[in-house]
Amino acid sequence: MVNNGTLSYDHDRDGTHTQLAGCEVRFRNVNFDTHISIRYENEILSVSTDMENRNEWKNCFVVQNVELPTGYYLGASATTGDLSDNHDILAIKFYDLDKNVSADEIKRRTSIVPKAKTFEPPREH
């Protein structure tokens, strides 16, 4: 979900009315580390998974036309509606992908209002 402060997360519907995209990943009760890659570059947000710690990445989703400012926050949760589970986040690594960005472009990005041009259609529960 991309939020500029005007949207609310709907716990009763697992956020499906405001999610950009999604996929099902079976993290539960595995005996090895699993990995997720979240990449944001050139207004494209993509998520990939390496579920068996083999450096074999599978696309979860790719969404274009996502605008995020600098200085944003990242959140992670294992809660889904009334259910919850234990998920240990062992590490989060950030990498700078904008090595050749001008000072004017960096300044422009600080004033972007977060938005996405599309959302995934709501699902029935």
UniProtKB/TrEMBL annotation:
<dbReference type="InterPro" id="IPR005052">
    <property type="entry name" value="Lectin_leg"/>
</dbReference>
<dbReference type="GO" id="GO:0006888">
    <property type="term" value="P:endoplasmic reticulum to Golgi vesicle-mediated transport"/>
</dbReference>
<dbReference type="GO" id="GO:0030134">
    <property type="term" value="C:COPII-coated ER to Golgi transport vesicle"/>
</dbReference>
<dbReference type="GO" id="GO:0005793">
    <property type="term" value="C:endoplasmic reticulum-Golgi intermediate compartment"/>
</dbReference>
<dbReference type="GO" id="GO:0005537">
    <property type="term" value="F:D-mannose binding"/>
</dbReference>
<keyword id="KW-1133">Transmembrane helix</keyword>
<keyword id="KW-0472">Membrane</keyword>
<keyword id="KW-0812">Transmembrane</keyword>
<keyword id="KW-0732">Signal</keyword>
<feature type="domain" description="L-type lectin-like">
    <location>
        <begin position="1"/>
        <end position="97"/>
    </location>
</feature>
<protein>
    <recommendedName>
        <fullName>L-type lectin-like domain-containing protein</fullName>
    </recommendedName>
</protein>
<dbReference type="Pfam" id="PF03388">
    <property type="entry name" value="Lectin_leg-like"/>
</dbReference>
<dbReference type="InterPro" id="IPR051136">
    <property type="entry name" value="Intracellular_Lectin-GPT"/>
</dbReference>
<dbReference type="InterPro" id="IPR013320">
    <property type="entry name" value="ConA-like_dom_sf"/>
</dbReference>
<dbReference type="GO" id="GO:0005789">
    <property type="term" value="C:endoplasmic reticulum membrane"/>
</dbReference>
<dbReference type="GO" id="GO:0000139">
    <property type="term" value="C:Golgi membrane"/>
</dbReference>
